[in-house]
Known about the structure:
The structure holds two protein chains of two kinds. Chain A folds into two domains: 2-76, Beta-grasp domain (Ubiquitin-like (UB roll)), CATH 3.10.20.30; 86-153, DNA polymerase, domain 1. In chain A, 34% of the residues lie in helices and 16% in strands. Chain A contains five helices and five strands. Chain A has helices at residues 23-30, 86-93, 103-116, 122-129, 140-153, and strands spanning 2-8, 11-17, 49-52, 55-58, 71-73. The mean pLDDT of chain A is 96. Chain B is globular, with a radius of gyration of 27 Å.
Amino acid sequence: MKAIQLTVNGGAYKVFCPEDITLLTLLREHLHLxxxxxxxxxxxxxxxxxxxxxxxxxxxxxxAMEADGAVIETIExxxxxxxxxxxxxxxxxxxxxxxxxxxxxxxxxxxxxLDENPTPTxxxxxxxxxxxxCRCTGYEPIIRAIEQIAGGAQ
Amino acid sequence: xxxxxxxxxxxxxxxxxxxxxxxxxxxxxxxxxxxxxxxxPHAHARILRxxxxxxxxxxxxxxxxxxxxxxxxxxxxxxxxxxxxQDKVRHWGEAVAAVAADTEAIAEEAVRLIEVEYEVLPIIxxxxxxxxxxxxxxHEQAESYDYIKGxxxxxxxxxxxxxxKVRRGDVDEAFARADVVIEHTYEQPQVFHVPLEPHGTIVxxxxxxxxxxxxSTQSPFAVxxxxxxxxxxxxxxxxxxxPYVGGGFGGKSGIHLEPLVGMLSKRCGGRPVKLIPTRExxxxxxxxRQGMVSKxxxxxxxxxxxxxxxxxYLWVGGAYADYGVNISRAGAMTACxxxxxxxxxxxxxxxxxxxxxxxxxxGFGHPEVFFGxxxxxxxxxxxxxxxxxxxxLKNLLMPGKETITGELITENTGRVDQCLKVVAEKLxxxxxxxxxxxxxxxxxxxYRGKAAAVLQxxxxxxxxxxxxxxxxxxxxxxxxxxxxxxxxxxGTYTVLxxxxxxxxxxxxxxxxxxxxxxxxxxxxxxxTVASRMTVLCGNALCDACDDLEAQLLEMGGVVxxxxxxxxxxxxxxxxxxxxxxxRVSYAQICMGYTYENGNAVGxxxxxxxxxxxxxxxxxxxxxxxxxxxxDWTYGAHAVEVEVDVRTGDVxxxxxxxxxxxxxxxxxxxxxGQVVGGVLQGLGTTLSEAxxxxxxxxxxxxxxTDYKIPTFKDLPGNLDVSYIETPQLDGPYGxxxxxEHPLISITAVIANxxxxxxxTEIYELxxxxxxxxxxxxxxx
Lengths: 154, 779
């Protein structure tokens, strides 16, 4: 067990945790932030995407110990004061989700993209999102949701 | 109609976009233990010895189970699988032992400490060899298994878990007089479901055998039924809770890990035990879609009339029957597609092999059948020198004709011909490329080709498949709907809200549904499968709304002093038709009406409704004749592809899909089913396949080796449209469509590749290496 400190969704945390756990386990099991999902535990599906020091990463591929001092945003930080972000609302309005299991990761990848490039082209969206798998929607509505924000709803 | 057909946004969107939707993995119970499985490293082997001493001695381990301990036999149609392998393993990845421990890490370590000694046996991997007399058997005791007699027809000693036959007319006589007879064999590998959320379950086997099961399942009532059956428990002592479910595609129907985890919990004194398989276990230990070898022989006259078809479908069922036996049955019912053919002989056979076992998968056998059938139609057209669209139109099922199982098609069954015409016209499938376009293809080495294909599916389910619904009013006149079917993303609950809103004249935001199902609180539903929810559960809800409406009118009549026939419902009020301002709100009467002096009458209003499949029959075991289809949903796809002949890459340039859905209930959600289903079908066509090595060891164990479509794999353009031929017994005329978009995608792409290159490919997937190899071979 070792102590680490990190910032998650603007809140400071000091956590004692085993040294061999991933950031995903830290978030889900120790901080009880279960919005971030585990789909493969191997960095293949993107369901556990969080924003780590400004970049989207698979939380299953980072050790908790590496996250000491990191600034992390998860899906739980996306809505502010109980109000959905425009991106979240766009996902609902564009029918960009079905089972919803990939959705938190999708939104975090899209958030990271839009933070860096507020007006991505369709190709840029596809490129940025290709690490996030969805088996339900066929992706098209997700692209539309992000395009809607890129088009000015933000 | 103010709500039906509208693109109402989904009821659970807010929960899902905020990460608040609680899936199985997110549930933690007090005292919960964690389970891990030990998987077989062999495809076929006798278990000689298992030593669990070291695992049991590890601190934190609460139970270690092997097949020698308490065990349970499971199987939805054929009870042929034990929760843990007994005596021998029959596929790579089969669970051999399991551990429950205080933490996942301890459980993992304990599993590593279990020693198993195997005697490796020869594998049975080829379905055609497996059914030969004298072949080694996957199940030596097959004749002792319990199964649904009269519905399934196993052939012990032949590795055959089920054979379903269709016999109509005289194929031998018809082939003899046919102008043209063609015969081809088509092969399809197994594919994985790949829901983003793996399976998962928590079971708490409490005192006095009260069992509480949380499960990521499409079929909470089937889990209850089959679990209770396996352990000989009364149904009211088993409670099954399905929370939010992260996709299923058929793989989460029936029963899976629940019996194993139940036994672990019982061993641990009733502490709750949680098991979530790893992605590798999701591939290897949980079932896949069956593989298939289909032989199709077709006889036709020179004018294109198909007069005979003989098919043999060998389903590579893998180690256990699971849904496989019912899939082969469904495959027989749809054996020749939506065509009128007088002389038919079909044998559809689920074969036991040492593959990972097969189960239900979106389309339930139809995508596999249609690869062969719709390839065969294009090959026949080529043989006859006919336009393939014209050949199809000449033979399609039309009102007044009978299906191969003797079911009469009526004006309201749906119009497959119109679906085909729509997509063929949209992509100008029958028009040739110009000389200039051809020259360009020659120059670039990228050859374009077009094709169209049709599809059909009816629900494959027991004749008694039923749904029910409860709708109750709250004090303020808002309502709550409870059903036993699961919304695992397909949007059924939103459509149900639309139905209730329409029926009861209540704004949709005043109609709520809790996520998930609890068998102790939800009314019965057979299973969330077979594209049956909108129709059967929708009809049950219509019935419940009618019941509630009758109560509103009765109570409204008391208050308004009017007869029922003088009353109507509008704007959340009961009103007097001839005097509409004379009205009483739902809120005033739904918990009973209180007079000024305090007297009260009536009481809380609860509507109940039910629906059971009407008029379905068992089939004749020798001829397959009977009525098994509740409804037929027809459709068609057209596609234009571009094949790079140097690399073998197939790019999908344009697609058009058209379905006769009876009635569009929610257009955006329907589009979601079609676009998602088409892309899943493109995965099956172009990249997805389960691979094994020569010893039967599974090679595709993760999402790197097993490729599902990504954002980069969308077709260039997908045009979706609908035809609405009302289904007379569907709610507002609707029929099922959830599975259908995936059907015939493989065939239409392969046909277009043939049209582009002249090369006929009979095996899936059409991955670049295989297409390139096929092109080389024909050059």
